Amino acid sequence: MSATRGRSGGGATTSGCGLKRRNAPQDQEDSKMMNQDQPSTEDWCGRFWNGMELLKDVTERKHFLPTGLEGIDTLLGGGLRQGQLTEITGPSSSGKTQVCLHCASNIAAKQMGVVMYLDTSNSFSPSRVATIIYGISDLFGQRGFELQPKDARLKSVMRSIICESVFDIFALFEVLHQLEVSLLNDKVNNGGSKVCLLIIDSISSLLAPIIGGKYPQGRSMMISVAVILKKLADEHNLSVLVTNHMVSAGNGAVKPALGESWKAVPHVRLMLSRECQNNICTATVLKHTLMASGRTAKFAAPS
Amino acid sequence: MSYTGSAPASSSLYWKGMESSGDPHPPILAGAQNAWDMLSDEQSQKHITTGSGDLNNILGGGIHCKEVTEIGGVPGVGKTQLGIQLAINVQIPVEYGGLGGKAVYIDTEGSFMVERVYQIAEGCISDILEHFPHSHGKSSSGQKQLQPEHFLADIYYFRICSYTEQIAAINYLEKFLGEHKDVRIVIIDSVTFHFRQDFDDLALRTRVLSGLSLKLMKIAKAFNLAVVLLNQVTTKFTEGSFQLTLALGDSWSHSCTNRLILYWNGNDRYAYLDKSPSLPVASAPYAVTGKGVRDAVSSNHKRVRVT
User: ipTM score of the complex?
Assistant: First the structure.
């Protein structure tokens, strides 16, 4: 793809206007010209897209990344959509992290791209990932992989999952900024294995210490995170998966944390619950951009 | 179907050729690790034994370093006993299969009984000598290490009398651990006590606690140590009946990596692994004896302690 339309770095900028700012292939010659000039209003505004172009873009680039969990894939119409932000919410130990680990393993095993995993609760378990990959390894045994021993396959798959621990909101901003810069560089160099999935498990544990109370800064940081994630998803065709906690909604019921203003952020919202003493998880669609919400599916928590 | 792959070291020769063709590109994120490297790190990690083989089994070998483990249960079920046991067991010298580390014990309730700690240390030493009978004639330095006094001296004990002190202590830990790199476990007994009283603003409590839990996560990862939080139980009214759950509410329940619940089953003590990213939900009996936490005697398949 082409360069970044005269914007240097691109990290510190915010999305200035409501129009879609993207790089269409025919932009290449005028973007060179623009680079010398001061960015004009039009430059910031980007170009118009018509519906047919959007449709083409969607069918060519916005793939569904399969999670490998059948129930969830059916519910989501194929999996996690590229360019979109998907949220998984659920009470403690309802299987949120397991779904994240499963997605990461599945995408890596099918060699769809690099998975970036941001972990806030030290719960990224490499041995669990290895077990999951072994469970689906028969799938990729066909692609000439069988020439390599089992360990070699595992190694090449696991090397495409990159994990970083993040323990506060500022570290998250830093990591997302770094990620954006290296994604822009990758675009320019046209090299490297492409990051296609960004997982944050869990976003709410980073946000919980700062939101609420009488100070508004926490809320504005939360919205900044949302803006950056959606921008990354859109510009680099990433699928973003975040997990959210559930908090008490009074009279014994629970609801997703982070309140009303976060509710508008994810494109897709999925709620998990697990019955006591067994491994059957239930997933419910709370919000979806294409499909009806309220549908549920059961799946066995992978053991 | 658990993963039992061979140690990566054994296949390293084979990989020499592939290595060079590896990543020609700069890393996407400086400082981030890929899952393969993390797997080999994890496999070389030792776990802290609980003293009970059955308990170790459901925990995947014992308490894991780099993770935060919450242990909850009704009063008298043995939370503090297990906490003290871990503070002793983390010090089992490397040559006897332990970690040879030190312990930080943050006591908010005043239930740390030093005579009992001495007893448990003696019990631990007698078990070590039983399993390594040949070591009696070993060098005097090894023998000197195996004194209960030595075990007691390597526990750093903080007595906390208010939640302000608790917050301060956790904030100070990072500096303390920087100066005491041989600490391999931090035990907080209990994280709940001060936060259950005189705290009116529950939303503020949630924020403070979630901040603390992130700090503890960070410490666990950065200093490669285990954090063990003991928690009390509370009753919660759900679906028409009162049920026992761990204290501090729904938001707190997300703030640990593993959760172990201790409970009574008739006259037997049981532990239930309620939450873990890598292990299945399971339960196992255990006993609290004069020597400390051990396997339940009724357990018909007696195991040699994993070392």
Answer: 0.81
